[in-house]
Amino acid sequence: MAERTTSCVTVAAAPGAVLAVIADVEQYPQWASEVREVEVLSTEGDGWPDRVRFRLDAGVVKDSYVLDYDWDVTEEGTGVVSWELVEARTLKEMTGSYTLSADEGQTQVTYELTVDVVVPMLGMVKRRAERMIIDTALTNLRRRVETDG
User: Fold this and answer.
1) Domains of the chain
2) Nearest Cα to Cα of residue 63 among 34, 91, 99, 26
3) Which of 35, 48, 81, 102 is 20 to 30 Å from the Cα of 72, by its Cα?
4) What CA dihedral angle connects 5, 6, 12 and 17, to 10 degrees?
5) Are 129 and 59 in contact (CB under 8 A)?
6) What pTM did the predictor assign?
C-alpha cells in the first residue's frame, strides 16, 4: 500500500497569488522541472482545470497520465486543490493536494502526495521519489510566485 508524503512551505504572497500559479497548469513545464508537457482536457464551469494530461519525468517515475482536479477554494485563494489519477501507463495511484492558508500576509502551502507504480519498487526508492517531487514542486512554486508573481 502506498504511503502519503507531506511537506510545507511559506510563500511571501497572498493565497490568491499562489492559487493563480497552481491553477495555471499549462505553465507547469516552465517552473516544475519534472513536468514535461501539460494538456487541459476539460474545465469546470468556473474555468478551473478539471481533467488534465501530464507527461512526467521524475527519475524513477516516468509516465503520461491524466488527473481529475477538485477545487475547494475560497475567493481569497485559501482552501484545498486536490487531484486523483484517472489513467496512466506505469502509475497505479497518484493522489495529492495543495492546502493553502493565509498567514499574516503570506501563504502556508502544504503539499501531500501519494504515488504508487505498477512495477514493483522498493518503498524507500518510492518515498525518495515522492519527496523529490514534493520538495522540487514547493521550492519551484515559491520561486515562481515570489519572483514572477
Assistant:
1) 4-148 (3.30.530.20)
2) 91
3) 35
4) 70
5) yes
6) 0.86
Locate 103 and state its grid cell: 498567514
Cα dihedral sign, 28-31-32-36? positive
Question: Residue 130 corresponds to which cell in the numbers above?
Answer: 515522492
Whether the CB-CB separation of 92 and 121 falls below 8 Å is answered with: no
∠130-114-96 over CA atoms, to 5°? 105
Instruction: Report the chain's terminal Cα–Cα distance, integer Å.
Output: 38
